[in-house]
Amino acid sequence: MQIGHWLERVRAERPLVHNITNLVVTNIAANTLLALGASPVMAHAHEEVADMASIARAIALNLGTLDPYVVTSMDLASEAANRRGVPIVLDPVGAGATPYRTGAAMRLLDTRRVQVLRGNQGEIGVLTGAGGEVAGVDAKGAGAGLVDAMRRFARDRGLIVAATGEEDLVTDGEVVYELANGHPWEASITGSGCSLTAVIGAFVGVSDGTKGGLLEATVAAITCFNVAAEMAAEGAGGPGSFQVRLLDALHTLTARDVDARARIRRG
Amino acid sequence: MQIGHWLERVRAERPLVHNITNLVVTNIAANTLLALGASPVMAHAHEEVADMASIARAIALNLGTLDPYVVTSMDLASEAANRRGVPIVLDPVGAGATPYRTGAAMRLLDTRRVQVLRGNQGEIGVLTGAGGEVAGVDAKGAGAGLVDAMRRFARDRGLIVAATGEEDLVTDGEVVYELANGHPWEASITGSGCSLTAVIGAFVGVSDGTKGGLLEATVAAITCFNVAAEMAAEGAGGPGSFQVRLLDALHTLTARDVDARARIRRG
Amino acid sequence: MQIGHWLERVRAERPLVHNITNLVVTNIAANTLLALGASPVMAHAHEEVADMASIARAIALNLGTLDPYVVTSMDLASEAANRRGVPIVLDPVGAGATPYRTGAAMRLLDTRRVQVLRGNQGEIGVLTGAGGEVAGVDAKGAGAGLVDAMRRFARDRGLIVAATGEEDLVTDGEVVYELANGHPWEASITGSGCSLTAVIGAFVGVSDGTKGGLLEATVAAITCFNVAAEMAAEGAGGPGSFQVRLLDALHTLTARDVDARARIRRG
């Protein structure tokens, strides 16, 4: 599967991605999109979220530090996005850690058409009913039936489900891809998952919006990000310099780099 | 025009700059001010913004992720600043992108004495009536009559207007300066414009508050920041390392560096 | 005093630290905890803060950009923490700068059992009644009777008080430790004090909760952080690269490094 051309499409079209994200990662998510060649905007005021979502190519919703105000922001933005056909990527950070977070994630999934759900294996396990334990925002490993649960959830709800971890799993309910790129240091910096969610937004923003397009865009986004992480880790002295080099690598990454290093297995 | 001595004045006086800024750049704006040698404080609670603005040497207001709570914070802080003669720098991030943002910027300009308005060319074009297109928070180029519109707006309202871009334009309504320093990578990191706004706060904070003083302080702030960016770009491998080196360069920058590299043209 | 073994305990137990912190440092505080080997979570919604505090090993409360919503968040989280025996570390950023901040800090100290109070010498001087001046969030030096005031405050209220500065002072009301590690560049980056507060959270989270345990954990946390800062400063070109190297150093720091470099004097 050649997916490097997706990176070129993102850079050529420079899609505007509207992020309603958490307080920890607003900066790094914006910088990640800029480094990649996409265009980030952050906005959460009820007075403008629908306007902003309407001019975006994708919206990325992240539950990392949600509160009632932001929950309403996401509600308004996602309603506008659904109405205008703007794809939604949902990152249910900490689903399973408190009832409030799990409830907020499920309510969005129940009331809106979400195109891509991306979380770590613990969060996805909780939401798809596969089980798994979530302490804070760190996954403690998914239950055994994760792939089956993901596939069922994706098919029943008509969305793409991605569970990232040492290996990343992506499914549209039929096909399952196992992605093996990445570096352990991604878990030693905050916001790598959240930044990846924003990156998925950029890629689905340049897709045709079909199920096949969304699936391939998600696989391409995760693989590009993880190949950049591998390149960034070479020569880094720890998580601080890794993070800096990751932004550099996202900027200099080429389609050729991605296709040469991609480790995508159709399960 | 020798402006390096402004940098020395900032370092000697270490002005306290009270920022009410957006969620994306709070950290980098604070670090920029610290690296330069100024003293940042962030505060937005209605209970204390007036107190904080009153002890500051300048306040920097940034509309990047505004919401009704923060709009009121800015209202209270700017009222106190006007009463105490503390200069206000306004950064109308995303003006033109949504009616809410444009409205919030214009209301501040209409109800308060703002000393410096700084935005990218798209935002300034929208606010001064020159036209221009804003998608998200990225300018798509200003209309042709930008300089004339800026000059008129500055003269009518008695403030300094600065529009940054590949070349930066600064006017007090009479004189127009064209500033040619800077590096394209400033557009590849988030918050470079917002950090610059905070830096202008530090410089106008050590000015005498006259129109001539505010104009020269604004020119000096932009030039210092952009010279540091040029020095940071030398040897950087991408936007991640550029951002790190920019903080280092702001810290080690000398008045001599600035005067040797300054490219300031009186239009 | 050998305290390197505390670092190993933190890494082995990977304590979950629930932070309710300010908008400037959310990212760097999370990255600091991850680099060290602890597990951060940020949450402030009234609907979930008590749940999150209850599953944490420590909570870290930081008043840097407080507002009424967050004040209530801290109230709810600290109530749950007290009920469950989860230690609380309080960082009264800017106490003394405005009545609102001083009041919020004192109210938490009066209504909850706080285990560790850590601020700069100006903030601690204000709260303990020793005097001192606070402009914005920078201390301008503590009054002369700081050590006496700290000791009295700690004894009367049964908590650990830490005042950081060029030398750091830590007391449980009886013993006073003077800690001489650290580097001046810690004052040139934002959030180093706030990150240290989060780190103290990780260390007290693996303590036995006795007064002696809390005291030693606090001394160990400050010393580990400051030794990492010394190592980070070697070869850094300014505050930007210092911050990056600090995360790297926290990640690679060993108990042996800490014990070899620790400069702890019992006063």
Structure description:
Chains A, B, C: Belongs to the Thz kinase family. Chains A, B, C: Keywords: ATP-binding, Kinase, Magnesium, Metal-binding, Nucleotide-binding, Thiamine biosynthesis, Transferase. Chains A, B, C: Its cofactor is Mg(2+). Chains A, B, C: It is an enzyme of class 2 (transferase). Three copies of one chain form a homotrimer. Chain A is built from eleven helices and eleven strands. With about 270 residues, the first copy, chain A, is of the alpha/beta class. The first copy, chain A, has a single domain (about 5-265), classed as Ribokinase (UDP-N-acetylmuramoyl-L-alanine:D-glutamate ligase, 3-Layer(aba) Sandwich), CATH 3.40.1190.20. In chain A, strands 2-1-3-4-5-8-9-10-11 form a nine-stranded mixed sheet, sandwiched between helices. The interface of A and C includes residues 100 and 136 of A.
What would you call the quaternary organization?
homotrimer
Strand order, main sheet of chain A: write it out. Answer: 2-1-3-4-5-8-9-10-11
Q: What shape does the CA trace of chain A take?
A: globular
Q: What is the number of helical segments of chain A per DSSP (H or I, 4+ residues)?
A: 11
Name the chain pair whose interface involves the most residues: A-B, 34 and 34 residues
Q: Describe the biggest sheet of chain A?
A: 9 strands, mixed
Number of domains of chain A: 1
- The assigned structural class of chain A equals alpha/beta
- Which CATH class of chain A is shown? Alpha Beta
Cofactor (chains A, B, C): Mg(2+)
Organism (chains A, B, C): Alicyclobacillus sendaiensis PA2
Keywords (chains A, B, C): ATP-binding, Kinase, Magnesium, Metal-binding, Nucleotide-binding, Thiamine biosynthesis, Transferase
EC number (chains A, B, C): 2.7.1.50
